Amino acid sequence: MMYRHKKGVTSGASQLFSVFCALMTTALCFAGDVSSHADHPTSQATATERFSMALTGAPRTPTATTGWEFNCLDGIRLMPFEDPKTKAVVLIFISPDCPVANAYHPQLKKMDECFGPMGVRFFLVHSSQDISPAVAREHAAAFGLSIPVVLDADQSLARAVNATITPEAIVIARGRPSRIYRGAIDNRYAAYGKKRPVASQFFLQDALTSYLAGESIAVRKTKPVGCFISFDNPNPKSSYSNRHRATTIQ
Q: What is the distance between the alpha carbons of residues 81 and 67, in angstroms, rounded to a whole number?
């Protein structure tokens, strides 16, 4: 496995980020654009609804983001783009035994709490046939995960978005045929085993902020640092793209 790490934000930077979230959320509240609690997962949701998610659907059309469909283990379907308030979906590929990915969970929780009310839906994706629902639940409980977790057992989702590293962020925006951002969460990790004291560039946060503000995204692609996703079947006869004839998202 290969690691690329990015250090946690210091208390000062964290406070600034919290202030930013508060200001942005307040502004949207006055504008009437903040989604209701029913549109965004809250602490009142059951543990199963919040982190025991299994991917069983796919885009109904090759490039329509409105087709993404996820099913909870208890049978509840979740189609984020069916909600008109959903402006973007962020997929973060993770692994229980990847220390780089695990180090980001607290930061991702804050980002979810900040951007969720603005129409951004976060999902944590386990892309491996070795990650059973039981393992996913144990991992979620150990790290206190509140973001929904998707099981990509056949790795079709990872193939569809060309994900190769944990943690790797993929941002899919409503009505956009291609990703608006792909890569590292920030620059906390310079390379394998090289961790900065403090992150100085916040790629995912900046991309989402620019997108929500209707501005051009300065950095749309970066190189993620972490653990390689091991694809169990290099040449699958039945994959996300083949089964549903979906065009790979570039």
A: 7
Q: Sketch out the chain's domains with CATH numbers.
A: 11-34+50-233 (3.40.30.10)
Each residue's pLDDT, cut to its tens digit, for the chain (250 residues) gives 443 444 344 445 555 555 556 555 444 433 333 333 333 333 333 333 333 333 333 333 334 466 677 655 445 567 889 899 999 999 999 999 999 999 999 999 999 999 999 999 999 999 998 988 889 889 999 999 998 888 888 888 899 899 999 999 999 999 887 899 999 999 999 887 788 988 999 999 999 999 999 999 999 999 999 999 998 765 554 333 323 222 333 3
The helix or strand, by DSSP H or E, that contains position 81, with its residue range, turns out to be none
What is the rounded distance in angstroms from the CA atom of residue 247 to the CA atom of residue 6?
32
DSSP count for the chain of H helices, then E strands: 8, 12
For residue 111, what are the CA distances in angstroms to 2, 92, 120, 161, 179? 25, 12, 10, 21, 19
Contact yes or no for 121/35 (Cβ under 8 A): no
The C-alpha angle with vertex 168 and arms to 154 and 79, in degrees rounded to 5, equals 60
Nearest Cα to Cα of residue 214 among 63, 33, 9: 33
Give this prediction's pTM: 0.72
Q: At what angle do helices 105-115 and 11-31 cross, to 10 degrees?
A: 20
